[in-house]
Write a structure and sequence with these properties.
The complex is a heterodimer of chains A (125) and B (200).
Chain A lengths: L3 H8 L5 H13 L1 H18 L9 H9 L10 H41 L8
Chain B lengths: L1 H5 L4 H12 L3 H23 L2 H17 L10 H20 L20 H19 L3 H11 L5 H8 L3 H30 L4
Classes of the chains: A mainly alpha (125), B mainly alpha (200).
């Protein structure tokens, strides 16, 4: 017994040649399977119905409208990646400099009064 | 399947044309429009499901190709990018419309009469409208994969590239779209049968 998913794949051309041949051989010997395939094929065709055709002169009308426009300079993907990498490196450098200043200037100043006022920390006596 | 019927354009041709569009060559744009307009109309129609709105959206798509050509990465296939632009424009259009997608039931959509069997003709026309209503009622994400598969004839891999989703997601959406379609059509057939045989 073949389920619809496999039959749809057959109709969509997504099965290997060997798989397709096996199902088609089975359908040749099985009226039920053959009828099922025909139903699915009919449904595929029904989906195709009704799409409109472009009117005559459609391409000319697009070109006429495009004449008033200019291709917009859109950032190239590689350029965007390169810019992003540079921005990231710059941000990391800034952060490193900020941390270094904080460690060298702010932290010692914050601890100095404690050293000066605590007798236990003054020369160990 | 339009794409298969017409054959895929060569990459070299598309590359050359997109290079010229980058330089502002409007004639290259005309060549691209003429090459892809049928397929783009079908794709947009598959998602928007209203014949009257297709042309406006298609215009918007090709103008975007012209103005945003720099966003196209030449390492990928042009038609994949074009289909993505078109599918996104169609989806945006449906969202902006902020109402259920309209199903055009104009006279032009009804199957033209070719024989002398008015009953058979009416049944065929009704069946066709029924399918179209069922497709129009599908959620957008299902409608777009169904359109790319059935109208454009793309492989699962190509659909995945256009929509930037995995092949597994393409398969599951297609499966659900078809299951929903089947459910709606069966419900409709049951309703019709119960109307035809009252009192049962």
């Amino acid at each position: 017994m073949h389920d619809d998913a496999i039959l749809w794949k057959l109709l969509d051309g997504e099965l290997s040649a060997a798989q397709s041949e096996a199902i088609e051989a089975a359908a040749a010997a099985d009226t039920g399977l053959r009828r099922r395939l025909e139903e699915l094929r009919a449904r595929k065709e029904a989906v195709l119905a009704g799409a409109p055709q472009p009117p005559p002169g459609f391409a000319a009308s697009v070109v006429a409208r495009a004449a008033g426009l200019a291709p917009a300079p859109v950032l190239d993907l590689e350029d965007a990646r390169r810019l992003l990498r540079r921005a990231l490196v710059a941000a990391l450098l800034l952060a490193a400099v900020g941390l270094a200043i904080f460690a060298l200037e702010v932290l010692p100043a914050a601890f100095e009064p404690i050293h000066a006022e605590n007798p236990l920390l003054r020369g160990g006596k | 399947m339009l794409l298969l019927a017409m054959g895929r354009p060569t990459q070299t041709d598309d590359r050359e044309l997109t290079r010229r569009i980058r330089e502002g060559d409007a004639e290259a744009l005309r060549a691209i429009v003429e090459r892809y307009q049928d397929r783009i109309f079908a794709l947009i129609y598959g998602i928007v499901r209203d014949r009257h709105e297709v042309e406006d959206v298609a215009q918007e798509v090709f103008l975007k190709v012209y103005t945003r050509i720099s966003a196209f990465d030449e390492r990928s296939k042009f038609y994949t990018w074009l289909y993505r632009v078109a599918a996104n424009a169609a989806k945006d259009h449906v969202k902006k419309r902020s109402r259920r997608p309209a199903v055009a039931l104009e006279e032009e959509d009804v199957v033209p009469s070719t024989g002398n069997n008015p009953v058979g003709h009416a049944a065929a026309a009704e069946a066709r409208l029924m399918v179209r209503e069922a497709i129009a009622a599908l959620p957008l994400r299902y409608r777009e994969v169904l359109t790319l598969r059935e109208l454009e004839g793309l492989t699962y891999g190509e659909i995945a590239a256009v929509l930037q989703i995995s092949i597994g997601t393409v398969e599951s959406r297609l499966h659900r779209a078809r299951a929903k379609l089947k459910g709606r059509l069966e419900r409709h057939a049951r309703r019709r049968n119960s109307l035809e045989t009252p009192g049962r």
